Amino acid sequence: MVQGASKTLVIGAAPVRAADVARAAQDAGFHVELNPDALSLLGRSREIVEQTAASGQRVYGLNTLLGSGRDTAVEENSLHAYQVQVVRYHNSGVGSYLDRAAARAVILTRLIGFSRGGSGVRPETATFYAHMLNNDVFPAIPSEGSMGSSDLTHLAAVAAVAMGEGEAFSADGTLISGAKALADAGLTPLVLAPGEALALVSANAYSVGAGTLALLRLQHLAELADVVLSLSLETIARYDGGGNLSPFSPAIQAAKAVDGQRDSAAAVRHLLRGGWLEDVRPEVSVQDALSFRAAPQTHGAFRALVTQLSGALEVELNGRGDNPLVDVASGAMVSGGNFQPMQLALAFEGLRLALAHVGISSERRIAKLYPPQRAIRARHLQSASAGEGLVQEELPGLLWYSAAGLLAELKFLAAPATLGAPTLSADVEDHSTLAPLALQQLEKSVEAAEKLLVIEALTASYLLLEAGAAQPLGKGTGVVVGRLADVLADRPSAPELVKRARRELRVVVPEVMGGDRG
């Protein structure tokens, strides 16, 4: 749990929340501590490992080789050297390196995994990972290499640095040796005890840790989607006689109990409160297009899947995914398959599909907003032909094309990622989740969806500003339009316009989404 204004994350027996992991990963100022309960459990867990090893019982990865070599024993006098070999062998990822927040999320997630008592690492090994976080040691972790049956290559890159090997980044972003990174932090390289190498690498700390960072962005997108929908409702009401709020009414939402749908509709009503759309207008269309009218159903389904992802992440964070599992209750080490995060992988999959549907509705609303913009352009041209000069437009005219391109990307990214894993290790590892690939595709979808929604927000705000203040905007939407007005007034280039609007919306959306949404 997070304690006090000093930003300390205390890890003990209590459940850990995904949002707390993400916040601690994003902020290098967070201090991480293992409380006495966690340290005591770690000690009991390690005693079981040492007793098992002393008994001569054959246990996977403790005194045997890995994968297809699972039934080949490792001699006792080679166990310490074997730890180094395991880490070096698995430190074979490729691709671009994770950023600082993702790297911290990997270390923190594995530390939380240690604290659950299933790994059998020594208390001092777990504490060393806390020291790496607290001293901002930043391992260079290649992004590619995991098949989703434990993120072996990602975690081996961390373990290599902990041992004084591998590579890391300095404070100024220079790639340095792991040994130097530890020395700069005042840490002495870790010497692994028997069984610890496998415990350090055999977990899904990348998929889970980086997944918590994606979760925060997805939660923002769920709110952003309702904000831009509200802006477009007000815009279509001014220019096309639409903006019928009956689909958002409590009566409609009470008629079908779909998780997330009521929240989406309530958010729209909250944003539009106090505005002219709340008044019944005789001229309003009896029904808007489905991209408006059925948006609570689409946005609500997306919200529900975001909630499911949060649950899946917290199952992984608070569970014991180790293999072999040190079962403190029975005092035994047991082989199992809890390292296979299938529920999490499928949550990543479903969200990409949901984002594509959110994107389809957004792009269709943008398309309906562009005819009024064309009319405005025609009016400007008439003024110019009358000798009044050509008025500079604040909104680049082809943002709709960019939106269409982003939608095409979202549809492409919605394809399944988890079904493509080949069999490995002499057909012993004959099924994998590909959770890391599903996550990385989801991160791309989040990026594209946010840009698409920002374009809708800009388009609607531009048109609302052109329409003037004849009718009052909602209390929430009015604030958003006011903030985007400053961005539009500067007339930046299209890339800079979207970048600045995106930054502004990340601040203003939480502000306007607060309060009672009954």
UniProtKB/TrEMBL annotation:
Q: Does the keyword Lyase apply?
A: yes
Pfam families in the record, alphabetically? Answer: Lyase_aromatic (PF00221)
Organism superkingdom? Bacteria
User: Is the keyword Lyase assigned to this protein?
Assistant: yes
Q: Which GO terms describe its molecular function?
A: ammonia-lyase activity
| Keyword tags | Lyase
InterPro entries in the record, alphabetically? Aromatic_Lyase (IPR001106), Fumarase/histidase_N (IPR024083), L-Aspartase-like (IPR008948)
Note the PANTHER family from the entry: HISTIDINE AMMONIA-LYASE (PTHR10362)
Tell me the protein's name.
Answer: Histidine ammonia-lyase
Source species:
Paenarthrobacter aurescens (Arthrobacter aurescens)
Source gene? hutH_1
